[in-house]
Design goal:
By secondary structure, this protein is an alpha+beta fold. Helix content is about 55%, strand content about 10%. It has helices at about 5-20, 25-35, 50-55, 65-70, 75-85, 95-115, 120-125, 125-135, 140-160, 165-175, 320-325, 330-355, 370-395, 405-435, 445-455, 465-480, 495-520, 525-530, 530-555, 560-580, 580-585, 595-620, 630, 635, and strands at about 180-185, 200-205, 210-215, 220-225, 235-240, 245-255, 265-270, 285-290, 290-295, 305, 310. Strands 1, 2, 3, 5, 6 and 9 form a six-stranded mixed beta sheet that branches. A three-stranded antiparallel beta sheet has the order 4-8-7. Strands 10-11 form a two-stranded antiparallel ribbon. The longest helix has about 35 residues, at about 405-435. The structure holds flavin-adenine dinucleotide. Flavin-adenine dinucleotide binds near residues 184, 186, 283 and 463.
């Protein structure tokens, strides 16, 4: 990008303005904010926590807040939660690897038999499709992922990239699990760089087949969920060459196993073995040896090959075609992000409930410690913020006929939210685990197993570092073609608006910094040597956007929750300002004195949420609507005094 003198002038003017800021006034304002958020005794304007009255959360409890949070398919979600109260779905932490895989398969089979949704809902009713799969992650992540790979990655790809003949051949049999499916994109040598995969597909006119082949060990499909022992079909990504012309990666649905489950000739599969977690899923490695599949195996909505071996596609550019081939991954990405947010709901609820009943050093419950509040309450605010962003993401994502702009917007938004939600989840679950002391380490209390099972969510469905690059790239590209105004931070009115401006300021500041670096040549090396800045920019963008969404949502909060939600939104915002403090200090956007003031403001907000026996925070957790049989942890659904009895 050409940097203009105007840009320079604006930057200098901005810094000039910053240096004129009356830092003492800023500090005073922040203290006033801290005063405003001190305990207000507002218990009257919100519903009383179910937990404080009784240790169990009744599913019949329909709080207005719950309805505000859960906006679609409430009946079905409740029905699935009720269904999961079956003994088959109770946790068993004593299982062997084989035992857990068997149990996971049984769970998936029984769930699928209920017919809550169909793979066809992937396009027909995407909110229902997603709601059904989301509900599973509250129970067991292995079951959720095993179902997700089958229905979303494999089934969704067939729905999206296939045509009527594929739908007729596969979809009904996928709904009954007669044809369990897997998704073969990643290779041993090619993970994040999908465009670089090496598996080949060549058309053989003599037999009217495609020949799928694994030319090297690096090209073997790796990590393929379900391939280890159960999948009968696989959506395979392979580089298609027709009459010597490379056409880029295309997807073929191929049989791996026959109806009896035997691996077919031309296919070799090896189980990946035990993993850090998620051991109910049988991941495997697949090699194809000049494996002939019918011409109809090519999912041909966007590219087809006729009987004479002529290739045609409405999308001329292989790079663009590739974008279409992988666009189906967005749904999976959203499911992973939502599961991360839902895990935070469980983790925070367990940690908070335990902290309210657990005394240490005298009779004081440990939630009284500011260190405990600091770990749990901003996590609660972050969970709400991310949940609301996911609602927005789904709304944009499922809007019909949104056009290519909507597709781009959803790609960027879902990439950023996936990375932020799963990185938040790692930190939040770890904090929650520690907040429960030794009890957090007991598998029965669920947080530890969630940490292990979900650890992979930062890697699969798009590695987080790579996802944040997608977000930053779109901001840098936009900044290159237009002028960037720095938001004005008006310290005279410190509050919801000012916090929003601070978060937008950080995003704009980092966009400018990154864009300036990109002007250095060669561009690729400038990009690579500033990858850390790029990821920071991704974070700043998600923080600012998530805060904006939260602020906008305040307009529709049920009135009795309005003031509470405003505070929760402020807490989320201040917490993210604190996380990005280095940038504010480096560029002089905030004075050093702001650091303790923001700290005090956050502490005061935390104290507000835990006043009156933490009734506000507990009610916010109750509103998630997680029934005891899915919360599972004895320290959250009963008194810890009863453990071992
Ligand atoms: C349990 C599990 C289940 C899976 N299930 C499936 C499945 O069913 N089907 C399927 O196709 N795949 C599946 N995967 C594969 C998954 O999608 C890949 O692991 C993921 O895409 C990352 O690829 P990789 O492991 O090769 O890591 P790499 O891409 O090699 O990344 C390794 C490290 O390098 C960094 N890195 C890579 N590229 C860049 C870059 N450009 N800039 C900066 N840093 C970079 C990453 O941030 C990461 O830290 C699964 C993986 C796991 C672990």
């Amino acid at each position: 990008m050409e940097r203009t003198n105007k840009d320079d002038t604006q930057l200098h003017t901005y810094h000039g303005m910053r240096s004129n800021v009356d830092h003492r006034r800023v500090s005073r304002k922040l203290q006033v904010l801290a005063g405003h958020v001190a305990p207000l005794g507002e218990g009257r304007d919100m519903e009383t926590s179910q937990f404080s009255a009784s240790p169990t959360f009744s599913l019949s409890h329909k709080s207005t807040l719950h309805d505000w949070i859960v906006r679609d398919n409430r009946e079905m979600r409740r029905a699935i939660f009720d269904f999961l109260d079956d003994p088959l779905y109770r946790p068993n932490y004593y299982s062997s690897l084989e035992g857990f895989r068997e149990l996971t398969m049984q769970r998936v089979v029984k769930f699928v038999r209920q017919g809550f949704f169909s793979v066809r809902d992937y396009e027909r009713d995407p909110l229902k499709f997603q709601a059904a799969l989301e509900s599973l992650s509250f129970c067991d992540y292995s079951m959720a992922i095993k179902s997700g790979v089958h229905f979303t990655l494999c089934g969704g790809t067939i729905v999206k990239l296939g045509t009527a003949k594929h739908h007729a051949t596969f979809l009904d049999k996928m709904d009954t699990l007669e044809l369990p499916g897997c998704f073969g994109m990643t290779e041993l040598g090619h993970g994040s760089n999908v465009m670089g995969i090496e598996t080949t597909a060549a058309y053989d006119p003599g037999s009217d087949t495609f020949v799928i082949h694994t030319p090297t060990n690096d090209a073997s499909k790796f990590w393929i969920g379900g391939a280890g022992s159960t999948a009968k079909i696989c959506a395979v990504f392979a580089q298609l060459t027709i009459k010597g012309v490379w056409q880029g990666p295309h997807v073929f649905v191929v049989r791996l196993r026959d109806d009896a489950g035997n691996i077919l000739p031309g296919v070799r599969i090896k189980d990946n073995g035990p993993k850090q977690g998620l051991n109910g899923v049988d991941n495997g490695q697949i090699w194809f040896d000049h494996y002939k599949v019918p011409r109809d195996s090519l999912l041909d909505k966007y590219a087809s090959v006729d009987g004479q071996g002529n290739y045609s596609s409405p999308i001329a550019d292989p790079q663009q075609r590739f974008g279409t081939m992988v666009s189906g991954l967005t749904t999976g990405r959203m499911l992973i992000a939502q599961a991360a947010v839902d895990a935070c709901k469980s983790g925070v609820t367990i940690a908070l409930r335990y902290s309210c009943t657990r005394p240490q050093f005298g009779q004081t419950p440990i939630i009284e410690y500011i260190t405990q509040q600091r770990r749990i309450i901003p996590a609660l605010a972050t969970t709400y913020a991310m949940h609301l962003s996911m609602l927005k993401c789904k709304n944009i994502g499922w809007k019909k006929n949104g056009g290519s702009n909507a597709a781009k917007q959803i790609h960027v938004l879902s990439s950023g939210l996936k990375a932020a939600a799963t990185w938040h989840r790692v930190r939040i679950l770890q904090e929650c685990r520690e907040c429960c002391g030794g009890m957090g380490f007991l598998a029965a209390n669920k947080i530890g197993p969630m940490l292990n099972d979900m650890n992979v969510d930062v890697t699969f469905e798009g590695d987080n570092t790579v996802m944040m690059q997608q977000v930053a790239k779109s901001l840098i590209d936009r900044s290159m073609s237009g002028h960037l105004d720095m938001p004005v931070v008006d310290y005279q009115n410190l509050g919801l608006g000012c916090i929003g401006n601070l978060l937008s300021w950080r995003c704009t500041c980092l966009t400018r910094a990154a864009a300036m670096e990109m002007q250095k040549s060669p561009k690729q090396s400038a990009y690579e040597s500033n990858m850390d800045l790029i990821v920071d920019l991704g974070w700043a963008s998600v923080d600012a956007e998530t805060y904006t969404i939260f602020s906008e949502e305040l307009a529709s909060v049920p009135h009795q929750w309005k003031s509470t939600m405003e505070k929760l939104c402020m807490l989320y915002g201040l917490h993210r300002v604190e996380a990005g403090m280095t940038t504010y200090l480096e560029h002089g956007a905030l004075p050093g004195q702001a650091v303790p003031s923001i700290r005090h403001a956050i502490n005061s907000l935390c104290t507000y949420f835990v006043s009156s026996n933490a009734s506000v925070a507990l009610s916010l957790c109750d509103a998630f609507g997680i029934p005891d049989h899915l919360l599972q942890a004895p320290i959250a659904v009963d008194t810890w005094h009863n453990i071992g009895q």
